[in-house]
Each structure stands twice: as C-alpha cells, then as structure tokens.
Design brief:
The complex is a heterodimer. Chain A is built from eight helices and ten strands. Chain A has helices spanning 2-6, 57-64, 104-112, 120-133, 149-162, 179-193, 210-216, 247-260; strands at residues 13-25, 30-42, 45-50, 72-77, 80-81, 89-92, 167-171, 202-206, 219-223, 230-235. Chain A has a six-stranded mixed beta sheet with strand order 6-7-8-3-9-10, with helices on both faces. Chain A has a four-stranded antiparallel beta sheet with strand order 2-1-4-5, with helices on one face. In chain A, helix 3 crosses helix 4 and helix 3 (104-112) runs parallel beside helix 5. Helices cover 82% and strands 2% of the residues of chain B. Chain B contains 19 helices and two strands. In chain B, strand 1 and strand 2 form a beta hairpin. The two termini of chain B are 43 Å apart. The chains are: A alpha/beta, B mainly alpha.
C-alpha cells in the first residue's frame, strides 16, 4: 500500500470520506451527529478539521480511524474501505494516553506490539529512532509521570510515528499543553510529519485554535454545528515557514473565522 | 442493624472529618483506623460479649453486644471513606470558606458532609455486607459462648432450623434473606446512592444506573413511591442537619461519652475476664506451652488464608476486569454480584456441609466459606479500579491493534492493580475473620446440646472458638493477641510497601 502511495502526485487523495452520516440512538430518539460529510486528505497534506465545540469533529476523526462506525457513507484509504482500526492509520491524542506504568520506550514499543513482521531487536531500533526524532534521546527509561506535558506528547507522537503509518490522525494534539510548549512543538511537527523520509503521507488534525490551523495546515475543513456538515473548505496558500505576525497571516485567520461564525 | 448503621455513619463522619482537618488528629487516627480495620474483630467478640453480658446479664446485654460488634465492623470502612472524601476536596473550596469566615460547624454542614455523601453511600454498600456477615456470625457465636439466646435473629434461625433438620424452613429462611437483601439494597441503599450523586463534585464522572433491577424498580414506582421517598429525604436531611446544628455541642459530648463507654466496656471485660482466668497466675511454662500450640494453629491458618486468597485473586482479577470492560455486562452482572455478595457466608455453611463428598472435606468447606466471604472485595475493587481508567486508555489496544495478551499485560492488569491491592488487603482481613466461622462450626439443637458441623485440622479460628466455649480465657487471650500482632505486623511491613509502590506507579493521572 505504501508503494502505491509513492506513485501518487502531491495532493492526490489518500483518505476519502464519502457522504458519511452518523446517528446516535438512545431509548426514545435518534440524534443526528454527522450529516453527509465528504472530504479528502491528499498526499503530503496536513488537513485541519475545525468547527464549533461539540459538533462532532473528534467523532469524525474516530470514524476515519476505524474506531467508530458511520451510520451511512464510507471512508477509504487509497482504494480500500476502512472497517476497523488498521496498521496504516494511527492516532495522537489530546491527553497523550500514555501507560503510566511503562517507560517512554516501553510505551512506544507497546504501539509496535502487533507488528509480527519485526523481531524484538528491530522493534527496539524503531522505537529508539522514533524517540530520537521527537527529541527524547536520553529519556527512554523515564516514566510518563516524570515527564512534562510537552515531552509526554512527544512520546505520543513517537509512538504513532514508530508504527510506520500512512495516515496520522491528531485529536487536538496541542490543546492540553501550555502556550509556550505548544508553540515549540508546533514549530517542529510539520517538518517531522510531512517530509519524504517518513511513512506518513497525510495528516488530519482536529483543532479549534484558528491561529494554530493557519500556522500548520495546508487545507482546513470547517464543520457546522450539530448535526455537522461541511460548511466550507479553505486552501491556505501561505509560504512556509509562516510568520504568525504578518498581515497576510491574519487575513487567512479572518477567512476561517468568517466560515466559523 | 439499622441502628448500628446510623451510629456508624455519625461516628465515621466525626472521626473522618477530624482526621482530615487536623494534622495532629490525623497522625493518631489514621494508624488506629488502619489497625482496627485489619484486625479480626470477630476474635474480640468473646471479650465484648463477656463484658457486656457481665453488665446486663439478660437478653438486652446479648443484643447490645451484637450491635456493638456490627457497629465496630462497619464504621472503619465508612470513616476511611469520609476521610478520603474530605481530603479530596479541592483547595479552592476550602479557600472560599476561609474567605467567608465560615465557622467550623458551617464548614461541616456546607462542605464536609455533602462532600462525603457519595463516599458514604458507596462504602455503606460494602459495610452493609460486612455488617450482615458479622450479624450472623455473632449471633451464632454468642449462643455458643454464653448459652443464652440472643432473642431472635436470622443467624439463630438458620442454625436452629438446620439442627432440627428442618431443611425446608432453612431454605425458606435463605430465600427470605436474599429477598430482604434485594429489597434493602435496591430500595434503600440505591436510593441513597442515587440521591448522593448530586453531591458529587462535578469533575467526577456520574455513574450510570441502567441495570435491569433498577429499570424494573423505576418502572414499578415511577411516580408514587420514589417521589415520596425523595421528598422525605429532602425534608429529612434538612431536618437532620438542623437538628444536628441545634445539638452540635451535644453531639460532641455524645461522641465522647460513646468512646468513654466503649473504653469502659473494654476495661470491664478485662476485669470480668480477669478473675476467671488469672485467679491464680498461670506459670510461665503453661503460658509457653499454650502459646506454642497457638503459634502452630496460627501458622496453619496463615497458610489457609493465603492459599484461599490466592485462588480468589486468580479468579477475582480477571473476572473483575472482564466485567468492567464491557458496559452491558457490567450493567447486568454488577447488581447480581452485589446481591450475592451480601448474603453472609456463615449462613450458607450448613448448606455447604450438606453437599455430598464436600461435606466430608472440612478443609474444602472452610475454603469455600472463606472464599464466599472475601472474593467480592477483590472483584469489586478491581471493577472500581478499571472503571476509573479513562476510556481512551482502555481503547489503546484497539487503536494499535495490540494482541489480547499484550493488552492484558500492558493495560488491563496494570490498570487494575491499585484496586486489586486495596481489595486484597481488605480480603485478607476478611479471611482472618471468616476463619472463626469456617474452621469450627457448631449448631445448637432444640434440646440445648450442640452438634459439631465441621472442623478443620489445627487453626487459630478453631482455637478461639473452642477456648470461647470452654471459657478458657488464657488461651483465648493468647490466641487473639498473637493473631492481631501477626496481622498488624504483616500490614505494616508487607502491605504498606506494596500499596505505596502500587499507588505511586500504577495510578493513572495525566
């Protein structure tokens, strides 16, 4: 599958969300959560998914990841339909979700434990390499409780990267971090994820921080209030590295806000 | 029983709040609570009944002794809950009261009691089961010890029906007991728990109440009874708190008087027992030889407690995890487990003896009785532990498509460990208590004679019961003291370390 993705040109769709709807059922009524959502995430793209809080953007991310099933519609990765969690998709969580009783290295290895094609030594090498890339050299044997929030999230990213995913899903990855830490991690993450040497071909990030979106995303998909449908999409054509203080930056911020309200 | 429960709650509130609010009180009360919680209270029962019966040599005395025992068995657990709840109040709330210059009583009324409510409700459910166990056990023992009827009681009923070979009445009684347990649990305790939900700090997740019995229950009295009940509770509590506020000084004295009375009873017991056993001081060699046999019995019981605990742990840990990982299973199974767990094991013992083959293996009978008494602590604590893990971490194995084995090894077992250790500590304490019933069990025949139903080889429980029945206070004292020392020493050295390590490494905080 990853060989196929190499033949694609930049922007060709890797993830296709096709007319996805989701209803919750409780005892009496049916609550529509997502209504006919379609979007794509292309090769070498970082897509931001945003919308009012509680609109169902995290739920959509979970459907893309195969953790929830949609009531109607399909999600495809390249040509194959997503029916459950799979190896090509991985996730970075808002609250890190590390195992507190395992060291950083063991946490990354945990993500690799389903890979029967690798020997234990290979898994170890991979895990150490991922920790090195995320700047955690020397912290392999430290427990999450002894790490700062920013470092915890780096372990979370390393755990996801080590699995050689094609698609990286991030659910508000910076919102549990303080501003300065988030700022530093944001500066590194784009280059870390979108570059020819990683297996990651596309990134979908849920965020409600518009400046963060303009700083990182190639394209932003804006959802409406519940039941969520796509209000609009904006391709952010802004040179990288992006200067957060430039006037141009703020015109893009305004464009997204206009769609949100 | 209800009297004892009410007393326990008031006592627990007083002790728990004091311990949580004052550092000095904390250093005294906490270790005491710890010890009281871990020593086998049943072992002391012969002394208590001796003492109280000495004061009131009639049915009132015997009943009073039973109430004291139940009270003692229930309060520690609730007091711990109150202590932890008050300790867990966010500092902001305390600051708020500081700034409004609230008086001690205002604080208690507006913050400490409401904050403890949900823990009291939760711990009452366990305490209730424990109390029932002691109720039955103490009624049975008191008959053996003093040959006076504790008027009427379920424990007495069970054994006397049984000795009269009135099996249909015996099974009727057990069915009746189960019904009573169900009604009490789901009408009173559940209402109490639901009602206390509104006192939860908003940060905590609210519990789901969707089990089938609850559904049935709400269907039955959708409008009528439960509304009345809520009304009564609302008014009741207001009246309760305002009544307390009027008598708050009185309560302080009442607690003091109560403690004094308790102390007096203990002293009186010693005095009462004194002349009997120490009329002439026994020689050191007699003490030595008795202590020798006591230590052998203690050793045998130690092994018994641990192998039964090992079986319970091997069953309880996986069962608890599996149940709590599956919402639907949890909703259906947990109320059923709650009911089964509150059927006191001693009352089932005669039935277990009747089972062919098993009945002739006293060791197996003892093991089953102990298991029935303690396995719930492990299951329920494991369940509570796994349920408090964030949903995301339980989902992690799915996200990374991890094998079942790796998921158990890395997520479920470590996640359940804190609850498992807490449950284990309580379970071992419960096992020591259960020994007194499980190792040696007699029933009283209608004509007053007793029949031995089951007895194991040597064991400390057996030693205690036989010494009680023959008023051998020297052996009794040595046995109870030795057992207490062993248990407390074990708790202080082994369990404390294990608990400390586990809570440090194996609790989830982001």
């Amino acid at each position: 599958m990853s060989e196929r993705s190499e033949q694609l040109a930049s922007g060709d769709p890797i993830v296709t969300v096709d007319h996805v709807s989701l209803n919750y059922h409780n005892d009496k009524e049916t609550l529509p959560v997502l209504s006919d959502v379609s979007m794509t995430a292309g090769k070498d793209e970082l897509i931001a998914l945003t919308g009012p809080s509680g609109c169902g953007k995290s739920t959509l991310l979970r459907i893309i990841g195969g953790l929830n099933r949609a009531t109607a519609g399909t999600v495809k990765i390249l040509d194959s339909e997503v029916t459950g969690p799979r190896n090509e998709i991985t996730m970075v969580f808002q609250n890190f979700v590390l195992l507190p009783w395992r060291t950083s290295l063991e946490n990354v290895l945990f993500g690799l434990s389903s890979r029967s094609d690798l020997t234990n030594a290979q898994k170890r090498d991979k895990a150490e390499k991922a920790l090195e890339e995320t700047g955690l050299m020397g912290f392999e044997n430290v427990f999450p409780g002894e790490l700062s929030g920013g470092m915890k999230q780096r372990v979370g990213v390393a755990r996801a990267l080590a699995t050689d995913p094609l698609v990286m899903l991030m659910d508000e990855p910076f919102s549990s971090l303080d501003d300065l830490t988030a700022e530093r991690l944001r500066k590194e993450i784009y280059a870390l994820l979108i570059n020819p040497s990683t297996s990651v071909k596309t990134v979908i990030m849920v965020s409600h921080n518009v400046e963060e979106i303009i700083e990182l995303a190639d394209r932003v998909v804006v959802l409406s209030q519940r039941p969520a449908h796509v209000v609009g999409e904006i391709k952010i054509e802004l040179q990288r590295p992006r200067n957060k203080k430039s006037e141009e930056f703020f015109t893009w911020v305004d464009k997204v806000y206009a769609l949100l309200s | 029983m209800i009297l004892a429960l009410g007393l326990s709650i008031v006592f627990a509130l007083a002790i728990g709040i004091t311990a949580a609010r004052s550092r000095r009180a904390e250093t005294v009360i906490l270790p005491l609570l710890d010890i009281f919680q871990s020593i086998p209270i049943l072992g002391f029962f012969p002394f208590v009944i001796g003492g109280i019966y000495g004061l009131f040599p009639n049915a009132i005395g015997a009943n009073l002794a039973v109430i004291v025992l139940i009270f003692t068995s229930m309060s520690w657990n609730i007091a711990f809950g109150v202590y932890e709840a008050v300790k867990a109040i966010p500092q902001d709330y305390v600051d708020l009261l500081d700034m409004s210059n609230a008086s001690g009583w205002q604080r208690t009324k507006s913050l400490y009691i409401p904050a403890s409510m949900s823990r009291i409700a939760y711990n009452t459910q366990t305490s209730w089961a424990v109390g029932l166990f002691f109720l039955v056990a103490s009624e049975i023992i008191s008959v053996g010890a003093t040959q006076i009827p504790v008027t009427y009681g379920i424990g007495i009923g069970a054994t006397s029906f049984f000795s009269a070979q009135d099996y249909s009445d015996y099974s009727l009684l057990i069915v009746g007991l189960i019904l009573a347990v169900v009604v009490w649990r789901f009408v009173f305790l559940r209402e109490f728990a639901l009602w206390s939900e509104k006192y939860k700090m908003m940060e905590e997740p609210r519990e789901r109440h969707r089990d089938p019995i609850m559904k049935f229950y709400s269907w039955v009295n959708q409008r009528s009874i439960s509304k009345l009940f809520l009304l009564a509770q609302g008014k009741g509590v207001n009246r309760f708190t305002s009544a307390i506020s009027r008598f708050r000084r009185g309560i302080k004295y009442a607690v003091l008087i109560f403690l004094g009375l308790f102390l007096f009873l203990v002293l009186e017991t010693v005095m009462h027992a004194g002349p009997v056993s120490f009329g002439q001081l026994p020689s050191l060699s007699t003490i030595g030889s008795i202590e020798g046999s006591v230590l052998v019995a203690l050793g045998a019981s130690f092994l018994r407690v641990w192998y039964v605990y090992a079986i319970c742990a091997a069953i309880g840990l996986p069962v608890g995890v599996v149940i709590s990982l599956n919402f639907r299973l949890y909703d259906t199974v947990s109320p059923i487990l709650e009911v089964i767990s509150s059927i006191p094991a001693p009352i089932l013992l005669p039935a277990i003896v009747l089972v062919p083959i098993l009945g002739h293996l006293p060791e197996a009978v003892a093991a089953i009785v102990i298991m029935l008494a303690i396995i719930w602590y492990i299951i329920f604590n494991v369940m509570a532990g796994v349920r408090t893990l964030p949903a995301e971490i339980k989902e992690l194995p799915r996200v990374f498509k991890v094998s079942r084995r790796a998921a158990w090894r890395n997520v479920y077992i470590p996640g359940a460990l804190t609850g498992f250790v807490t449950g284990s500590i309580t379970a071992i304490g419960g096992a020591w208590n259960a020994l007194i019933i499980a190792e040696y069990f007699t029933v009283t025949n209608p004509n007053g004679s007793t029949t031995l139903l089951t007895q194991t080889g040597v064991g400390i429980g057996k030693t205690i019961v036989i010494a009680t029945n023959s008023a051998d206070y020297l052996t009794l004292t040595l046995a109870v003291v030795s057992m207490t020392i062993l248990i407390v020493a074990f708790n202080l050295t082994v369990w404390r370390r294990v608990y400390h390590h586990v809570t440090k490494r194996y609790t989830y905080n982001r």
